[in-house]
Amino acid sequence: MKEYRRTSTTVSLINYHFVFCPRYRRKIFLDLKLEQRFKELVHEICESLKIEVVALECDKDHAHMFLNSPPTLSPANIMARIKGVTSKQLREEFPHLQHLPSLWTRSYFVSTAGNVSSTTIKQYVENQKKRN
Description:
- The chain has a single domain (about 5-125), classed as Alpha-Beta Plaits (2-Layer Sandwich), CATH 3.30.70.
- The longest helix is centred in the middle third of the chain and has 19 residues, at about 75-95.
- The protein has helices at about 30-50, 75-95, 120-125, and strands at about 5, 10, 15-20, 50-60, 60-70, 110-115.
- About 35% of the residues lie in helices and about 25% in strands.
- The protein is of the alpha+beta class.
- It has 3 helices and 6 strands; from the N terminus they run βββαββαβα.
- Helix 1 (about 30-50) crosses helix 2.
- The N and C termini lie far apart (about 30 Å).
């Protein structure tokens, strides 16, 4: 069972499942170096925001993230930071992406997940890669 997050004023357990895609559903994650760099960046961003990455997987044309967040961050804040930083960095580091005005679509899927389904969602996210 996941431990609750505690601060001097709050006790929380907030888990989000995010799914988002590159523009035009480009299959950017077929490039394993790009996928690895994307995952590194997500971990760095989440660490700086005090978000725990429970699971992170990429399929050819989308990313799944299962994150445990502090109560001070909204899903919109989290997505804005992750998409903004990864888009800028990946377009700088991978020349074939430089022509894109942005790497990601503006849309995303988010669902909250309490403690009961955390294991299920973690397994689902981790199994995304194995399906194909």
